[in-house]
Amino acid sequence: MKFRCLETKREEIFCKFAIKPLNMFIGLLHFHSLLRWVLLLLLITVIVKAFQGRSGGKKFESGDRKLSLFTMITAHLQLILGGFLYVISPTVQNALKDMGAAMKNGESRFWAVEHISLMVIAIAILTVGHIKAKKAVGDQAKFKAQALYFTIGLLLILISIPWPFREVGMGRGWF
Prior knowledge:
mainly alpha
């Protein structure tokens, strides 16, 4: 994306300080990628604590509830950022112009359909798990709901991340 900012002196001055869409896209993409690691760490922590609580007969405390809530907030923030990136992504926009061709191309299909679909489903499952744990009667039922739903959500997220070792993630790096 290239911009012409030199039509008038006023536009030239404005353009020096304006956020260009491509720069914004790259910045948000890096933040989205960084936030992925925070979310994965939170999910693993919730899951480990849920399995420990379930097997150890521990009490479901307010710290467990707050950790789950913070994980949900992070997941939903990640979803909002991802949705915004989906709308402004040049790769997605090219794929959406010709969905027939995009569905035949693995990388285009991944970005236009698979990544966003699996992430929305995963975050919906995390949300259901959070709600079920919150409404469950008894500490073991709360830990069981967290362990089950958050593990399923984590697996879906891991499947749909464009890791550098996957074809769709080649050249993207770990951050």
